[in-house]
Amino acid sequence: MSLPAHLEDLNDWEKKLGDPFVDDSVLSFNRSLVLDENSELPKDCIDELKSMGYYEYLVPDKWNGKLHSYQHLYHLIRSLARRDVTVATMYVLQAIGNWAVLICGTEEQKAYYCQKILENEGVTWSVSEREFGTDLLNNQSTALKLDDQYLLNGEKWPIGMCSNLRFTMFLARTGEQGAADSFSLFCVDREMHSSAQYQNLDGEALFGVRGLDLSGVRLTNCPVKDDQIIGSKGNGLEVMLRTQQLNRIGACALSTGAFDSALRVTMGFAEERKLFDQKLSTIPITQLQLTDAFCDLMISELVMNCATRSLHFYPKMTFLWGAIAKYYVPEVIGKGFSELADIIGARYYMRTNFASGVFQKAWRDASLAAFADGNKKVNLKNVAMHMEVCLPVFEKQQGLSEEEQVEIREFFDLFTDVPDAAYEDLSVFSGKRDYVTLHLQDVMDELPDLLSSSLVSDETVFAIRNLGARILDDFKMLASEVALHKNRLQKSYNYSPESFLMAQKYSALHAAAVVISTACYTNFQSPLDTLEWVPACLSRIRRQIDPNRNYPTEADRNSIYTIMEKLYNEDMAFTPIPLLYNGENSSYRDKSFLYI
Ligand SMILES: Cc1cc2nc3c(=O)[nH]c(=O)nc-3n(C[C@H](O)[C@H](O)[C@H](O)COP(=O)(O)OP(=O)(O)OC[C@H]3O[C@@H](n4cnc5c(N)ncnc54)[C@H](O)[C@@H]3O)c2cc1C
């Protein structure tokens, strides 16, 4: 088993980070749990990661860092989150404001702030205001122009890592209240200001990620120079919307990473626990819950691969595909945690002992992904806005040109390297042509030829074709449903519950289209190479839309569970790419960990 060159070092990192069930590993579960119980910042772990060079991946190679692809960075964040979501969140927050610089900063700004990140001086993200939350147009912080400088006034709360990092991106009004072009984004350096000008607010006690520094900042007549504006005066909201697309992808990695560990622990428990003279894992309903959780994770991974690779191939689409991912992944994973808790029973509720407390901490921590950087409703609104213009184009059956088809095949092949990231091309509208949807009919037509020479059985090809045809029908039905609701509700459709429900369906169908296209263009490695998991994932998505359809048979369940067992027993992560789990010879299968 091998990883493609552009992802190759991920397995080296797995080995270096080691097995978190071992106490002297870089990120041991036991240590994380003690720190979490005491709400302590995991500073030693962070320092060790920095000295190992992990933080260099937050800066693009062009600016002397090691970041080459967002697909790769996603896996680095995910890998930390499998061990400790608090550490992974701190990692993401280190560079959260610097993406704005990469998107629209000057060359001097890019060089300066990237260098600062490499020197371990992070750039936080100060956008939220206590009173207004997601209602950004009402934000009250101001920037008043005085000669060659601005005076910043206002309070931002709650802000991650605000008390610890040197720089913060501060969104403030430079124009009339209520206008979209009246905001500007300033990078503020706390070292340049007195405590009267730059004041940190008290920290908050948290439900999850308890060791995280979450506080806020109050600026009072805080002077900043013109060249501290990122982008141009008045385009702060636009810069923010473009930057959030990258932050959203990072937030989803917290979810999938935490769920990988939670699923692993639950599977171990179901394998070892015997009730009524049988293993829990052999009870049909439990096996269905486990295989559903596995499918949910695989689907989420493919949706994330689509979102991360879009930055390199289709930066304009990142707005839509990232919004879908940011709604779909935390939503599905959140429900999945609840199903896994049902399998574990009373033990999941205990903060210590059972599996080193991994499960309950992962669940609490991962819930952060649902609201951070745009909650579910904000993302669904973005999806709803796009599907209204994308579905009519889909209905006209305007597929992709031959040139576009060549590119999309490469895009969906997870094992091919990506072109350089086009940060500057991130947009605030993805346009009318959703390439994933438009390509679905073509890939369905090609499917038998594409899979004919592979290890995929005729039955599996038939099942994928059959389900794919139904998904195409579902897309068409969705277009009619939207038209009906719009006709009935007229202007009130845009804010109606119906528009959110339609966007949820569009997101699920997008996930299905992504699964089909990725399955066709990627040469998966054992045990995923037979693609038996693909029909199971498609059925799972159709059941997410309507719980009464596509129940898997016993044979379907068994084949998925066999794949899970292989990954589990061979220390492979539950990912579509062949990633090691915890390095080598992981000890998580030692049942004593699961029962103490
Ligand atoms: C651990 C943590 C870290 C954070 N880090 C940062 C940070 O670094 N920087 C930063 O700026 N902020 C940060 N935040 C703030 C966070 O991003 C919040 O999402 C943001 O403040 C918006 O607040 P809210 O989700 O509470 O939503 P509110 O705006 O208060 O909304 C409450 C509810 O209203 C509903 N709603 C909102 N909008 C709509 C809509 N358009 N349509 C229908 N319903 C809607 C939703 O159900 C929503 O949950 C952090 C918060 C936490 C807890």
Detailed description of the structure:
The protein has 596 residues and is of the alpha+beta class. It is built from 21 helices and 10 strands. The chain has helices spanning 9-17, 29-37, 43-52, 70-83, 85-94, 98-104, 107-118, 236-272, 284-313, 318-344, 358-366, 368-371, 376-395, 402-412, 435-438, 440-452, 458-489, 497-521, 533-545, 554-569, 591-595, and strands at 123-126, 142-146, 149-160, 167-173, 183-189, 198-200, 214-225, 229-230, 274-275, 278-279. The chain has a 4-stranded mixed sheet with strand order 1-4-5-8. A hairpin with a 2-residue loop joins strand 2 and strand 3 (149-160). The longest helix has 37 residues, at 236-272. The two termini are 34 Å apart. The mean pLDDT is 94. It binds flavin-adenine dinucleotide (FAD). Residues 124-128, 133-134, 158-160, 214, 368, 371-373, 375, 377-378, 381 line the site of flavin-adenine dinucleotide (FAD).
Break the fold down into its secondary structure elements and pairings.
Blueprint: H1 9-17, H2 29-37, H3 43-52, H4 70-83, H5 85-94, H6 98-104, H7 107-118, E1 123-126, E2 142-146, E3 149-160, E4 167-173, E5 183-189, E6 198-200, E7 214-225, E8 229-230, H8 236-272, E9 274-275, E10 278-279, H9 284-313, H10 318-344, H11 358-366, H12 368-371, H13 376-395, H14 402-412, H15 435-438, H16 440-452, H17 458-489, H18 497-521, H19 533-545, H20 554-569, H21 591-595
Parallel strand pairs: 1-4
Antiparallel strand pairs: 2-3, 3-7, 4-5, 5-8, 6-7, 9-10
Helix pairs in contact: 4-5, 4-8, 5-8, 6-8, 8-9, 8-10, 8-11, 9-10, 9-14, 9-18, 9-19, 9-20, 10-13, 10-18, 13-17, 13-18, 16-17, 16-18, 17-18, 17-19, 18-19
The structure holds flavin-adenine dinucleotide.
